[in-house]
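Entry:
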Amino acid sequence: MKNTINWFEIPVLNFERAKKIYETILDDPIQVMPHPEYKYGLLPGDMRNGVSGGIVEGNGFEPSTKGTLIYLNGGEDLSVAISKVEAAGGKLIFPKRAIRANGFVAHFIDTEGNKIAFHSPK
């Protein structure tokens, strides 16, 4: 098994608003995918050799600050990604902190009410 995680979905209340924050902080477009029941967008990632996920608006998808915490790739230097969070409508709740030799992490609340985290080497 290459990765424990295969795919993840971030629930959103307002697809366009969520699309905007994730495009801004990840500095990459969200690919809108047709779906018969939901509004769905693919986050940037290598779908053949890595792990990625999507944002989804629809019945049964509820944003939360509790439960599983998803760590997004914060790029080479986490300072760049977190500098975009509040300007894009999110709220930084756990500033950049070192995790010993494993790099850095930070947590934020997205525009939809999800607690999400970043990880990076610097």
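The first helix runs from residue 15 to 26.
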